[in-house]
Design brief:
heterodimer, A: mainly alpha, Globin-like, 8 helices, 70% helix, B: mainly alpha, 7 helices, globular, metal-binding (chain A)
Chain lengths: 145, 142
């Protein structure tokens, strides 16, 4: 799926990502831009405005957790389905999350990366990242039944 | 789906920033589209799609200008884009999935060029607006 150069480029950019902040921002933006995704986070407290969502400590913590998981996946780009097998089962059997949400979050993450890196996030680099987020989304959906 | 007054204000305000670099934004959006979604290139077999091509620049300008037309008639996007809607339905017949790809690439371009301005609220308003524009352009498909 990704060439050796693409893997290197993706890994190199991601090494510069502030995982704590980017995860929270990506999840927060998902909840703001696609408010129906809030259905999974009713226990998170105040989600009444963009500021409330982005400042919400539970959103930030969960965003970080999600991105940490994504980072782990980046180390196993050759076997994303294997890497995300148990998380896939969890999201299907326990969390009951429609896999479409993984695609939405993946694209929001790409937007956040563009915001962080500006012109460094070139069309070619974006293309590589799109492949990664698609791969992760597919891997997370793989064990659904 | 219709825009709230707050969303309209956000969209118009962001457009005033975009319009200062409209051609650049348009060209980059298309570069991102063709890099990330090579299937979109199937609609342009007659174009030179290399970075910096005159055709890419011209088409990028055209696309962003149309977005600008929609912003200027934000209260009636359907009317403002009526001719374009017919063009896409009867002549171009671009598969609707490509509007999602193009919209996403425009948002990525905006985030990249306007990191401070492209807040979550602006992101939400523009995502919704582009979704409405896409809907208008595919309205007459069948």
């Amino acid at each position: 799926m990704l060439s050796a150069e693409e893997k290197a480029a993706v890994t190199s950019l991601f090494a510069k990502v502030k995982v704590d902040e980017v995860g929270g921002e990506a999840l927060g933006r998902l909840l703001v831009v696609y408010p129906w995704t809030q259905r999974f986070f009713e226990s998170f407290g105040d989600l009444s405005s963009a500021d409330a969502i982005l400042g919400n400590p539970k959103v930030k913590a969960h965003g970080k957790k999600v991105l940490d998981s994504f980072c782990e996946g980046l180390k196993q780009l050759d076997d994303l389905k294997g890497a995300f097998a148990s998380l896939s089962e969890l999201h299907c059997d326990k969390l009951h999350v429609d896999p479409e949400n993984f695609r939405l979050l993946g694209n929001v993450l790409v937007v956040v990366l563009a915001r962080c890196f500006g012109s460094e996030f070139s069309p070619e680099l974006q293309a590589s990242f799109q492949k990664v987020v698609t791969g992760v989304a597919n891997a997370l959906a793989h064990r659904y039944h | 789906m219709s825009l709230t007054r707050a969303e309209r204000t956000i969209i118009v305000s962001m457009w005033s920033k975009i319009s200062t670099q409209a051609d650049l934004i348009g060209t980059e959006t298309l570069e991102r589209l063709f890099s990330c979604y090579p299937q979109a290139k199937t609609y342009f077999p007659h174009f030179d799609l290399h970075t910096g091509s005159a055709q890419l620049r011209a088409h990028g300008s055209r696309v962003v200008a149309a977005v600008g037309d929609a912003v200027k008639s934000i209260d009636n996007v359907t009317s403002a884009l009526s001719k374009l809607s017919e063009l896409h339905a009867y002549v171009l017949r671009v598969d609707p999935v490509n509007f999602k790809f193009l919209s996403h690439c425009l948002l990525v371009t905006l985030a990249s060029h306007f990191p401070a301005d492209f807040t979550a609220d602006v992101h939400a308003a523009w995502d919704k607006f582009l979704s409405i524009v896409s809907g208008v352009l595919t309205e007459k498909y069948r």
